Design the sequence.
C-alpha cells in the first residue's frame, strides 16, 4: 500500500504505513521471536518511562510532592479512583494489573508521538494480546468468584421471559465481541492518527517541487500536521483512558454479574 | 522514512524490495510473535515495577500525607481550644478587674460623700453661729441707735424750745419726745 508515489508530482513520496513496519534494530535479518526490533526498543523505552515517572519520580517520598511526584500520584489516584468507582471496592486487589495496562498504553501512545518513533500500541497484535488478557482474566475470574452464577450475566432477569433467550444470545455475542472492539479501538485510533499525519507530511515538501501549488499546499499541510498532532495528543490519553475504563467495566461484570 | 535504508534482505511477505510496507504492517503474521513476546515481557516488567516498588511507595506517601494532615488538623484544633481558653481567662480577668474597679469607685464615693457631709455640717454650724452673732450685733446696734435718737431728739427739742424763748421743763420735753417716738 502506498508504495508508489502518487501525488501531483513525481517527487512526492507517500509511505504512510511504513512507520508501522517491524524491523530488527541491528542488521537486516528476519524477525524471529526474540529478535530485538524497533518494537522491542520502544516497549523498553515505555518501561523506562514508567520506571522514571513512578519510581525515580517518587524516590524523594516527600509529603509535599514535587512536580514529577505529583504527576505520579495523580496517575495513581486517577486509576485507583476509576477502579473503585467503576468496578467497586472489591476490585481494588486488581488495581495493579489495571494500572500496568494504563501506564503501558499511555506511555506507548505518548512515546509514539515523538517524530520518527514507533508506536507499539498501533499494532493490533499488541492491543489484541492485552484485550485477550483482560477478556480471559475477567472470564476466569467471573467463574471463580461466582461459579455458574456468572452465566446470569447473560440471563437478564428483568426482561420478559419470552425475550430472555434472544437477549441471552445477543449478550453472549456482545460478550465475545468485547476483546475485538477493545483491541481494534486502541490500535485503530493510534494507527489512523499517525497515518493521517504521515499523509499530510508527504504533502509538506510540495513547495520544493512545484512552487505555485506548493505555496498554498505546504503551509496548509504543515498547519494540518500541527492540528492532527494536537488531536493525537488528546487521543493518546483518551484511548488509554478508554481501554482502562472498559477493563474496569468488564471487571465489574465479573465481580457482580447480576444486572 | 528510515525504512528506506533497509536493503534487499529486508524484503519479506510484508515488505517489498524497496523497503515499503505491503498491505497493513499490523496484519503481518511474521511479526506478531515477536511483538507478543516483547509485549508480555514489557507488561511483566511494568507490573513488577508498579506492584513491587511504585504503588506501595505512593500509597505510603499518600497515607503519610493523610496522617500528617490529620495530625496537623488535630494540633490546630488543640491550639484553637487553648486560644479559646486563654481568651476566656482574659475575659474573666477583665471582668474581675472591672468589678474591683467598680468596688473601689463606690468605696471612694462613699468616703468622699461622708467627708463632704461632715464638712457641710461643720460649715452649716459655723454659718449658723456667725449668723447668730451678726444678728446680735445688729440688735445691739439697733438698740444703741434708738438710744442715740432719743438723746438727739431730747437735746434738739430742748434747744428748740430754749431758742423759742420759752423756759421749758426738762421732764416735760423728755416725756413729749418719748411719746412721739413711740407713736
Sequence:
Amino acid at each position: 500500500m502506498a508504495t508508489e508515489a502518487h501525488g501531483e508530482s513525481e517527487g512526492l513520496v507517500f509511505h504512510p504505513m511504513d512507520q508501522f513496519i517491524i524491523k530488527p534494530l541491528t542488521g537486516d535479518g528476519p524477525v524471529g521471536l526474540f529478535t530485538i526490533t524497533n518494537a522491542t526498543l520502544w516497549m523498553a523505552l515505555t518501561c523506562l518511562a514508567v520506571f522514571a515517572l513512578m519510581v525515580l519520580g517518587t524516590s524523594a517520598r516527600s509529603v509535599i510532592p514535587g512536580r514529577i511526584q505529583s504527576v505520579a500520584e495523580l496517575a495513581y489516584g486517577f486509576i485507583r479512583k476509576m477502579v473503585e468507582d467503576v468496578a467497586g471496592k472489591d476490585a481494588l486487589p486488581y488495581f495493579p494489573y489495571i494500572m500496568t495496562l494504563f501506564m503501558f498504553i499511555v506511555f506507548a501512545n505518548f512515546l509514539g508521538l515523538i517524530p520518527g518513533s514507533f508506536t507499539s500500541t498501533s499494532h493490533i497484535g499488541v492491543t489484541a494480546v492485552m484485550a485477550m488478557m483482560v477478556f480471559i482474566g475477567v472470564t476466569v475470574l467471573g467463574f471463580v468468584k461466582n461459579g455458574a452464577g456468572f452465566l446470569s450475566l447473560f440471563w437478564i432477569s428483568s426482561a420478559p421471559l419470552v425475550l430472555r433467550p434472544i437477549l441471552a444470545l445477543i449478550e453472549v455475542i456482545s460478550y465475545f465481541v468485547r476483546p475485538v472492539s477493545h483491541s481494534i479501538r486502541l490500535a485503530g485510533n493510534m494507527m489512523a492518527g499517525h497515518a493521517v499525519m504521515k499523509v499530510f507530511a508527504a504533502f509538506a515538501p510540495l513547495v520544493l517541487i512545484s512552487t505555485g501549488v506548493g505555496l498554498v499546499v505546504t503551509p496548509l499541510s504543515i498547519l494540518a500536521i500541527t492540528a492532527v498532532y494536537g488531536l493525537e495528543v488528546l487521543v493518546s490519553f483518551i484511548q488509554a483512558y478508554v481501554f482502562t475504563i472498559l477493563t474496569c467495566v468488564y471487571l465489574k461484570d465479573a465481580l457482580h454479574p447480576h444486572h | 522514512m528510515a525504512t528506506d535504508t533497509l536493503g534487499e534482505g529486508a524484503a519479506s511477505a510484508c515488505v517489498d524490495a524497496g523497503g515499503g510496507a505491503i498491505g497493513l504492517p499490523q496484519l503481518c503474521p511474521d511479526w506478531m510473535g515477536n511483538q507478543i513476546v516483547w509485549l508480555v515481557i514489557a507488561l511483566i516488567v511494568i507490573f513488577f515495577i508498579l506492584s513491587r516498588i511504585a504503588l506501595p511507595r505512593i500509597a505510603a506517601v499518600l497515607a503519610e500525607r493523610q496522617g500528617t494532615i490529620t495530625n496537623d488538623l488535630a494540633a490546630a484544633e488543640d491550639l484553637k481550644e487553648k486560644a479559646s481558653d486563654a481568651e476566656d481567662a482574659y475575659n474573666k480577668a477583665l471582668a474581675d478587674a472591672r468589678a474591683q474597679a467598680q468596688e473601689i469607685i463606690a468605696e471612694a464615693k462613699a468616703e468622699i460623700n461622708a467627708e463632704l457631709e461632715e464638712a457641710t455640717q461643720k460649715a452649716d454650724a459655723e454659718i449658723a453661729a456667725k449668723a447668730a452673732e451678726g444678728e446680735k450685733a445688729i440688735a445691739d446696734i439697733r438698740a444703741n441707735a434708738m438710744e442715740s435718737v432719743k438723746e438727739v431728739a431730747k437735746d434738739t427739742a430742748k434747744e428748740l424750745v430754749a431758742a423759742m424763748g420759752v423756759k421749758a421743763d426738762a421732764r416735760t420735753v423728755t416725756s413729749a419726745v418719748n411719746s412721739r417716738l413711740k407713736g
Chain A is about 65% helix and 0% strand.
